[in-house]
Amino acid sequence: MSGNLAPRLRALSGVFPVGVMLGTIAAEYGSSPVLAGLSGVLSLATILAFCVSDRSSPRIFAVVGLAMVILAILSRSDGLAGSWSAVEKGSFVIALYTALSAIRIAASGSEEILACGRFLAGQRPGLRYLALTIGGHLFGLILLYGSIALLGSLASESAMREPDPEIRRHRRRRMLVAVQRGFASTLSWSPLGFSMAITTALVPGAEWPKVALPCLAISITMIIVGWGMDAIFKPRLNRPVPIGSGPGGGWLLHLRPLLLLLAVVVTGVFLLHQAAHVDVVVAVMSFVPTVAMAWILQQGKSSGTGRMSHLGHRVGEFTTRELPAYGGQIVLLFMAAFIGSLGAFLLVPMMPRLGIDLGALPPLLIVVSMVWLVPLTGQMGMNPILSVSLIVPMLPSPAEMGVDPAALVAAIVGGWAITGTTSPFTASVLLIGSFGKVSPRHVGLAWNGFYALVMGIVISAWSAFLAMSM
Description:
Distance between the termini: 59 Å
């Protein structure tokens, strides 16, 4: 590709995911197959543009996806329809990712949000882990992986001020692990994350309002167990450690901007869900960008250029710079959903011919196995979106197994949360490894291996209890 064309295509590529988001939102509210089809076309244009303009994008997944499409068309009469259904699944992922990226970009321009992060990272040693894991959770609800980038950088910056190299090394590890586990705990219940959105879409009878409380219990347990393990296994030094003091001021005062943002998003999503009778994820997808634009407008009063001018500038940057910078991530997420969906489409009809009947297995075994299968496939390089999209359609429905859908959802999202702390191929582990200056596999197995084992046992027991309580 010529030197002049590549930058132009890269800048244009950010327009496509915005179009996918707008088309998906309109299609969901209007129940329009035409708009849904347009979103699918734009999502394919997104992947093509990123694969051509960004050499770092995982093109191998696109090649695998194309090969699967050819196989589907040659092996099944409805292969084209199944392939298009997989495109629509991937389109939904792009739309949700774009919507959530908007709020992350708005937050990056907020000095108040940065101040919240500095307050958490500056806590005294006795409170630091708990502060950062709760902060990682609260920030993760809104910023997703951006919470790790924000708090991880602030934690590393805070640890580097410690002159003793041994204390500095332990402090950095404990702070980064706290941030990571706090973020991972959002994966087990947050309606703003891919884990809950995809799982509730795949599990028959599952809706976020019906599964939120059982899954929130997993999140709370992850925070408590992590805090307890940090206190029990904290490093013992042969010399006294100087006790520092944390920043002054009350917690509510310092965290007020973040808590206010969360309150606005949660309340707005709930009201929209009730008033428009749309799925919670659709309400998130449509409301969050609105909040992001309002927030950017508010930030514009101190920009010196005017609010509307500031909004136009930031939207332009978001479209032509921010989204293209995440092109590889968008390709990976789309292809994970696409390959998982199309793989299930090809494999499900083959199972009876191969003599495989998962319905013959004990329901408790199926439910509990999902807690471990998702992290295991994560160690093999499979994104949870791919593994869940591939495996869940092959399982008997909760009604067929005689279990509450909440049990299966809790097992899946619980395993997804564990994957967020252990898989060396996930963004959360990669980011923590880069901040901690260790390999992603060291983060997953050495820093979080025992924690993942404990949480796997706890989540298995909880999911089994939910399954038996129906």
